[in-house]
């Protein structure tokens, strides 16, 4: 349980989304491992797949926003 909380807390203080997603992944892996230890492996797998998909969408969006504050258009306009 402590690893699950620490994984969630690892997201908040990180200014870069690269390190924040590591905390999210840690929290999801530990949470799904906790569910597997309780004997609900199928629900854990479905939760991990859905959560992983949502995290990757948010991660790609935030990385694309943080990559370059003033993107240059094609042709230098």
UniProtKB/TrEMBL annotation:
Top-level enzyme category: translocase
Tree of life domain: Eukaryota
Coiled coil residues, start to end: none
Lipid bilayer topology: Multi-pass membrane protein
EC number: 7.1.1.2
Intracellular or extracellular location(s): Mitochondrion membrane
InterPro entries in UniProt: ComplexI_Subunit6, NADH_UbQ/plastoQ_OxRdtase_su6, Nuo/plastoQ_OxRdtase_6_NuoJ
GO molecular function: NADH dehydrogenase (ubiquinone) activity
TM ranges: 16-38, 45-67
Substrates-to-products reaction catalysed: a ubiquinone + NADH + 5 H(+)(in) = a ubiquinol + NAD(+) + 4 H(+)(out)
Cellular component GO terms, alphabetical: mitochondrial membrane
Keyword vocabulary terms for this entry: Electron transport, Membrane, Mitochondrion, NAD, Respiratory chain, Translocase, Transmembrane, Transmembrane helix, Transport, Ubiquinone
Family named by the database record: Belongs to the complex I subunit 6 family.
Function: Core subunit of the mitochondrial membrane respiratory chain NADH dehydrogenase (Complex I) that is believed to belong to the minimal assembly required for catalysis. Complex I functions in the transfer of electrons from NADH to the respiratory chain. The immediate electron acceptor for the enzyme is believed to be ubiquinone.
Name recorded for this polypeptide: NADH-ubiquinone oxidoreductase chain 6
Natural source organism: Sagittarius serpentarius (Secretary bird)
């Amino acid at each position: 349980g402590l690893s699950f909380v620490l994984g969630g807390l690892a997201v908040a203080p990180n200014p870069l989304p690269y390190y924040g997603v590591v905390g999210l992944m840690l929290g999801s892996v530990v949470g799904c491992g906790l569910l597997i230890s309780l004997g609900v492996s199928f629900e854990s797998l479905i939760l991990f797949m859905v959560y992983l998909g949502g995290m990757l969408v948010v991660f790609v969006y935030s990385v694309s926003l943080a990559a370059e504050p003033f993107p240059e258009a094609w042709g230098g306009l």
